[in-house]
Write a structure and sequence with these properties.
The protein is 15% helix and 6% strand. It has a domain of 36 residues. The chain starts with 24 loop residues before the first strand and ends with a helix. The protein is flat. Bound molecules: zinc ion. Zinc ion (ZN) binds next to loops.
Length: 62
């Protein structure tokens, strides 16, 4: 039974989009794309991780 599934583009995975004029970034820890958040408005340039957890992960690793 070889059945092509139409529209199996991205089930479940959201695509990060540009928000408020800021393009999404890729987390250097987990490699996922994340969107701009209001809490990062001030230091978006310095944001490299999608979450505090990733930040810690990256630091503890090596
Ligand atoms: Zn991450």
């Amino acid at each position: 039974m070889a059945s092509d599934r139409p529209g199996e583009a991205s089930a479940g995975s959201r695509v990060a989009r540009t928000k408020n004029g800021f393009a999404p970034k890729t987390c250097v820890s987990c490699g996922r794309d994340f969107e701009w958040r209001k809490k990062w408005a001030r230091d978006w340039d310095d944001v490299k991780y999608c979450s505090e957890r990733c930040k810690k992960n990256s630091k503890s690793a090596r």
